[in-house]
Amino acid sequence: MKQNQDVIAEGFKGEKAIVLPYAVCNYLTSNNITSKLHITHIGYYPNAKKHYRDRQEGCKEYILIYCEDGSGWIKQDETTHNLKRNDLYIIPRDSAHCYGAKSNDPWSIYWIHFDGTDAVLFQHIMGEVIHIDDADSNKHANRIQLFESIYKNLEMGYSPENLEYTSFCFQYFLASIQYQAQFREGNRIQVDNIIQDIIIFMKDNLENNINLDDISAHFNYSKSHLINLFKQKTSYPPMVYYNQLRMQRACSYLQFTLLKIKEIAFKLHFYDPFHFSKAFTREMKMSPQEYRKKYQK
Known about the structure:
Layout: E1 16-19, H1 22-30, E2 38-45, E3 52-55, E4 62-69, E5 72-76, E6 79-83, E7 87-91, E8 97-101, E9 108-115, E10 130-131, H2 137-155, H3 160-178, H4 194-204, H5 212-219, H6 223-234, H7 238-256, H8 261-267, H9 273-284, H10 288-295
């Protein structure tokens, strides 16, 4: 496989991605539910001009690529497969491959890295181009909504409930591909409770340096009651959860912007860049510099 030299570093306008931390991935393999099927990376690249990846050693996870629009190609086991609108391809784990967008019509893709003991149940849709029939536009939209639901739940943090929910959702997503004729519309689950409101408040204030007193005052709860309630629902103390969300935001800045690490630290109210780097490394098992080098295009 030839390494393409025409790879841009700025990324794609409107792109988004989540890479789950090392410790969370370890938890996924030990949980009875998520060990069967779980996501380790997830994202969306719109109009991904000059997008290119080359993994001569393969990848330790399965890789799902769903072409929403445009066109691209995937080369696996010396065979090149062309993808167009509504085509999907799953690259088996540990399989040498490369792929990229076509220069005259760059693809927009949803992509997921996943693993688990039950992944082999979907081997019939791996290693070949699967065309998704979107004759029923409502069902097509529901599948995209399911992807967005998975993404948004992971974006809200890594509580056991979020991870288990996304595991079940992803199993349903794969089933909707393998059993297209049987696929039926799913009802979007909406959760309206105080914990979700608190998490949204946290996300809205990731760059405002809030503390437990601020959260307690905003929701008119005592700190002890808030801690107990939050731990009961998420398995994490509120500020631990908040710091996980800050690291998630830091990952986004490192991958999708050219902000200096010092600037990212200041935006997230780590007034000591060394403290930020130490906290980031503890959470992600790699330094901010290493993360940017690995994931920034």
